[in-house]
Fold these 4 entries.
Entry 1:
Amino acid sequence: QLSLFFSPDCRLSVVTMVADFQLKKSEKNRVLVTGGTGLVGCGIQEVLSTIKTSEDHVDFERCPPSLAPIDRAADHPTVVETEDEQWIFLSSKHADLRDKSATKELFEKIQPTHVLHLAARVGGLFRNMREKVEQMRENIIMNDNVMECCRERGVKKLVTCLSTCVFPAKVEYPITEEKLHDGPPHHSNEGYAYAKRIVDVLNRAYRDEYGCSFTSVVPTNVYGPNDNFNIADGHVIPGLLRKCFEAKKDKKDFIVWGSGKPLRQFIYSFDLGALMVWAVRHYDDEKPLILCGDEESEISIKSVAESIASSMEYSHGLQFDTSKSDGETKRTTSNKKLRSYLPRFKFTKFSDGIRDTAAWLDTYFDQSRL
């Protein structure tokens, strides 16, 4: 039997770390989450406080629209305690992972047994196109520092988060894990994509040379509450949500960049949070694992915009600015490998996730990352 989570009777508590990152001694596994105040980290924190168990699938309550924004200005990281674990959620405020000395000092203080590496220099299509050098260099440096510190400290497991943009631009669909290195990525994402591809190569190299248990997961496009709603540098759904919110407020047209024709698969941040928790606890294969819904969940950007407009009760004009790049026309990925582990995992309906995220943004717009 595969037991994913602790029993429903497990008592969870959220505590704040004392000054200077000092933690009480504990026999529990200590999971360090880099980038822990980002969209995915917020999803994991919520999942850890609402999880239930069954034999081989994850079940949890979806995020209520009233979920308060995470406090990114807090002086100390957040720690979520389960029966057998401490999950420590860090942000860039707590350590600059581009600095090897700062990263080593962080690992010495936290002394993690497991690491979930979410931190990255990220952005949407247009930032990836505009800042290829910075996207590549800074991510390579961060990843190298984290991986080497994991080796030096004898961390039991490292799980790094990749992105579906790492896959080849010209590939037979659906994309599977084995096709990762079958050709160059799309030129619009090449700086970021190659930095992430190197992680997969190093996972195998560290295992072969040092016996390290390093692996990676590859989620499709993530969305949900606590996202970055910056239009220029954010991802597609948060950018569209912000545009629609402002278009409704100003009684103007809702303008979507591009033709609206490209197809994408999306995953709600709390679904991904549950899968990330499972991966840290149970996924031991060095080869990457795609985390996505079923292939039929793929949806056009036009349909995404229409769903957002409906959720926000926007009824003005919807326009497409075809002078802007579409990026890749599609990136269909297969979750066959994921389903071999979790055949009954239930993904949140896209319309429900969009509705909750739109309601969250409407409630907390002034406190959001804009």
Entry 2:
Amino acid sequence: ARASTSAWTRAWVPGASTPAAAVADAASAAASAGNPIFAPIRWGFAASHARGVHGSAARFVDERFTPVLETPEMDAEYEKLAEEIRRSPKKRQRFLLLEALRGTRLKPLIAAEHELLKEEGAYKPRALKTRVIDVNRTCKVTKGGGLMNFTALVVVGNGDGVVGFATGKGKDVAMAVEKAYSRASRSLVYIERFENSTIFHEQEAKHCKTKIVLMPAKAGTGLRCNQIVESICEMAGITDVRAKVIGSHHPHNTVRACFEALERIKSPADVAAARGATVYRI
């Protein structure tokens, strides 16, 4: 592994077109030096494909070695990584070198370039309204440094009775919010409303140490409730309601308790269907 790493680092020069060509050159150099790991029989086909010897175009293209556009951001990231390797101690240099060979640092940039090439700048608008309720940051301390991770709690809805919530995790806030949105859009519920403005009856629910009480209000009252409950009601299309949160005000518990209360609300048609009667008898 050390021989392959040193051969790769020596062969990786700006003149190499792709990492595959650099590996092929490193393999041929190591084979000529008598290294049994890089046998010519094993690397001849890969080297010829990397250089384009067999025909005008390679018959097999590895997505890991697909060339990307050379952008100033990519050059700056390469220079920053090289400077960090030069200034770090030996143990840190070994860790950063393995990280550079695996492409851990440059993977987000390469993925972004490939997405731009695939979509060609096409913008896909979201079909549902989105409201970010909470973003939590965690940091895992390792010998190579801190690993940041974000968790986002998102509520989505169309403003007409359809609403949902979910959490998502990612290396940055945007990635976490996008994952939460995709999960929330697959777990939607419909909330019954009275005159498209308020709820039919008073309802309470409890989740862990959080208790919530939802109370109907007449038209023009507005949303007299907690900020988190207000966001959920706006996504669901409820414009007049009064609510009280008792106990813990943790965002995750509040959201779950509010959704439990909203899902328990029944309209007169639901009660009539459960009792086997008509609505006017109810």
Entry 3:
Amino acid sequence: KEENDAAARKIPAANFPPVPKRLIHYVGKALVDYSMINDGDRILVALSGGKDSLSLLHVLNYFKKKSPVKFDIGAVTVDPQTPEYDPSSLIPYLKSLGIPYFYERQPIMEQAEEVNSKTKVSICAFCSRMKRGVIYNCARTNGYNVIAMGQHLDDLAESFIMSAFYNGLLRTMKANYTNDAGDLRIIRPLVLSREKYMAEFAREAKLPVIAENCPACFAAPKERHRIKIMLSAQENLFPSLFPSLLKTMQPLMTANLEDILGATKSNEDDEQIGKCSSGTCEV
């Protein structure tokens, strides 16, 4: 640990752009409100290279330095080995930050297409489960007990509307929960942050954002994109839309209706709500 601390002190401060106060405020509030981080936690950030996960990495690194709660962070990227998405440029970037980094290569898209040709399982659902399995395995192998995901308030609102519209269920992604095996916690520190906060930070800090162009997601307009457009139009009419939606969703961010009514449901089921978040296949 002392060697790691010494190495971290040698990283130029310029590699860590200042995190906006607004992002610090909302992430800090989420960390406290949902009891996301405990002393001694080892947190693995699921890093796709998009604006959200890169922003999350930097804001957690900020809190690692400033918080009285002591915790460690690392990052993992799953490379599905498709020509449309190449996150390998993250390798030198994470090295420049001095943050422990795990780059996992797996031909997920090839496997997904094979499964899709034989079954009715969607490519997105298969990809989501496979990525989650790779990330869980990486965390267990390397001694991390918490996985940090990059979904934000816009994602949760879109998931809530989609679940109500298409499935007849009051559900959204949870802020902090334990996986079914009971050995990993999954947290979403950006749940109170609007997507535009991360977009602004990534642009101003010149973060090395990687465009994820999954052919399964971009072959045609998707439902999530249509919901995003609908919510944007409604927000123009009702500026307090997202605070209202957050108030509505808060009970569901810790427990879904099935939990409240005493029905049994796997925590892992919630991850299927989150696939294809913000136009990309998120875990």
Entry 4:
Amino acid sequence: QGERGSDANIMLRRSLFLLPRTVAPRTAAAARSMSVKVDGDNAEVEISPLQAYKTEGPASTWVKTTKDEVLSSLYDMIVMRRMEIAADLMYKSQLIKGFCHLYDGQEAVAIGMEMGCTKKDAIVTSYRDHCLQYSRGDTVKRILAELTGKSGGCTAGKGGSMHMYRSEANFYGGNGIVGAQVPLGAGLAFAAKYKTNNGLPRGQAASDAVAFAMYGDGAANQGQVFEAANMAYLWKLPIILVIENNQYGMGTSTLRASSNVDFYTKYDPLPGLKVDGMDCFSVKAATEFARKHCMDGHGPFVLEMNTYRYHGHSMSDPGLTYRSRDEVSGIRKERDPIDKLKRITMELGFMDEAGIKKMEKEVRGLVDEAVEFSKTSPDPDLNEMYTQVLVDNPTYIRGTDGIYGHGKCSWAPGA
């Protein structure tokens, strides 16, 4: 935009520049993987101690891993990054319509959680859900086809960007209302405890699975979040509240929007940990610790993932009106989660630079093929409008003739 415009516009820009901003930590306060130990295909990675509230946190700063876990995690994070870049280009080419919220920069949160839990554990998240759909086992083809509204999509083209779903892997979306997924997560935790114990026992009781309710810093002050946290504490539900603190709620910094920016302490008396969400090993350690706390029957736990999104809030947000290019490039340079995992992979001797470049080339081919699939997959059949609404598909639906608002279309089920 340069310096052109009316005096009023210039004054507005100056006043906005003077408003306080928050910058993701780039100092020792942000935990970083520091050193490694290797024993064949087994290894340990050292992280900085996690900040804890009303809990001791993990006893060790060494996180156990394996060659297979490291390489598969690196591959999946590269896929996520490439997939989101492809979605960006497809949106700009008008192949994707409507809302589209990208996850690039936050990949270590999704992958670190999967390293520390199982598919038996339930996850529910916000509308920034593409990479969670992938981490729960879906394919890039099905995800991109869903973004283009095609029948080959993961919800047959009916959910789009914000409403992905994979029940066979206990992934329950993709929710478009800010904070609304947290009460749903409490319900999933209720179900886990209920099924484990053949009923809901009072007080402390073990569960064989947990629920993760993921939401951003912008949703952290929602009333329904506090209500769900309160009920979960009273009923000792095995729920982990995962706050993906990417520093901005839409275009508003956390310092301007929240009276308490230490989100892991926010839901007193719930215990919590502050985690470097740009380091998958820190996320894994925190996830394992919180999961054991919940499965042992001690009730809910809070994890604040200190992370950063490279894109704006959504594709309609350029992301540079409330933060500078230098800030974004600085985070990329110093804290990028994929670059960090690449360095650790090479330090462990599990793959050299040439091997990583070969992996990246393979991923590019995978994503390019998925983009073509999303373009050529057919549109959903009109009958799909009536499926997955009720348990049994109805034989008669009122108001579907498209003319007078009663009767039914010739293509409606049972016609």
